[in-house]
Amino acid sequence: MSQTNWEADKMLDVYIYDYLVKRNLQASAKAFQAEGKVSSDPVAIDAPGGFLFEWWSVFWDIFIARTNEKHSEVAASYIE
């Protein structure tokens, strides 16, 4: 695995852990951290709901805009 892929995997693990903590899934977060040897250092993008949640919200809005007529105006600007 290349160095860049390893870093991407490591960062994904960090943000998964951050998401679990922010969702108050403490047992899952602790197990994930231990098994994946994930650092508990603060994340670079410290969104209130977690970076993954923020990313997912944007992705989902744009995805729905492409497949459904009920979508936000912001999402519509991405698909036009």
TrEMBL record:
Coiled coil: none annotated. Its main location: nucleus. Pfam families: LisH (PF08513). The keyword Zinc-finger does not apply. GO terms for cellular component: nucleus. InterPro entries: LisH (IPR006594). Keywords: Nucleus, Transcription, Transcription regulation. It is found in: Nucleus. PANTHER family: LISH DOMAIN-CONTAINING PROTEIN, TRANSCRIPTION ACTIVATOR MSS11. This is LisH domain-containing protein. It comes from Papaver atlanticum.
